[in-house]
């Protein structure tokens, strides 16, 4: 018997829009955006200063690893509902698409409220990725004794292989499921997460930081394109833009002659970056400091929950819930990263010709993001594609002069 059901999160400005630069995507769609000076299309004094960007040493030989992440997308949005399974009450909390890290504190708070309302104070969390860790911490802050049960721990969880950027409405659901009720809940969760991340700025190891991003386009490709005839259902990809337009800074155009990219069109925006290695360690340390325990266990079917001593469980298994729960509504969305040796003097991101570059301190990230949010949709393969990784690196490298041989 289901105690409660809430089944649907809808999405907004997708990962491609975030990585491209929200302003660039909106400008290409013919929409005006406000500049940093508060006027539509305005250019601030900061944008009038010449950009001094250290060139990226982007060569394939500096790639340290190629990783693949399977994002758990549900057309209806994340599953947040309470279900009785045998003698257990299970709060399902999975299916966040590309918004797992970004929304984790907000969705974790919702899951915590629902778990604590069941009257138990000894609670199990299944899964130790982005959603599992933050939910466990939210439960501890609410007064619960928490044990995490998981097959994999960071850095071996799927979410440890994520891009690591603020994208709270990336592939969160299809537009048709973005109901008014969902939008109100999403806004609350987004604001909760955003404020949580502001409290983590400036900590040792730089788990969270703000980074300027530059969308670079060749003059011909910058021209407005006619809408295609794609008949696939659209993603809800403008939640942040529509509901929380002042949450993050608006991008501005950088005039020609004031940037190092020649005649190309450049827009600058600012976004949060998660250095996932140090951030995950911070979350684990906080969980243990609050008295939390972790046990390595693998669950094959919901019947396996019966062996746990806790009566209330929060199921944060992400894409693993497809097999564990038989939830075929979860659709895999493949995403591949080329990780590279970082440079201490490079603290800016780039998007150019379908490739994003994120300057994470725990390893630079290069990613082919495809023509739309359906890129990688339905693909559950996890074998790295080395040629594609090298293509991503060379695309970004083409923006800079060849490195001097000394």
Description:
The model is unreliable at 1-13 and 22-41 (pLDDT under 50). With 406 residues, the protein is an alpha/beta fold. Strand 3 (79-85) and strand 4 (88-94) form a beta hairpin. The protein has 11 helices and 15 strands. The chain is globular. The strands form 2 sheets. It has an 8-stranded mixed β-sheet with strand order 2-12-15-14-13-7-9-8, with helices on both faces.
- Helix-strand string: EHHHEEEHEHEHEHHEEHEEHEEEEH
**Radius of gyration from the alpha-carbon trace, in angstroms:** 21 Å
What is the count of β-strands?
15
* Global geometry: globular
If you average the pLDDT, what whole number results?
89
Number of helices: 11
Largest sheet: 8 strands, mixed
Q: What structural category arises from helix and sheet content?
A: alpha/beta
Distance between the termini: 71 Å
| Residues in helix, % | 25-40%
Unreliable stretches covering 5 or more consecutive residues: 1-13, 22-41
What is the subunit organization of this protein? Answer: single chain
The gist of it:
This protein has 406 residues and is an alpha/beta fold. Helices cover 26% and strands 23% of the residues.
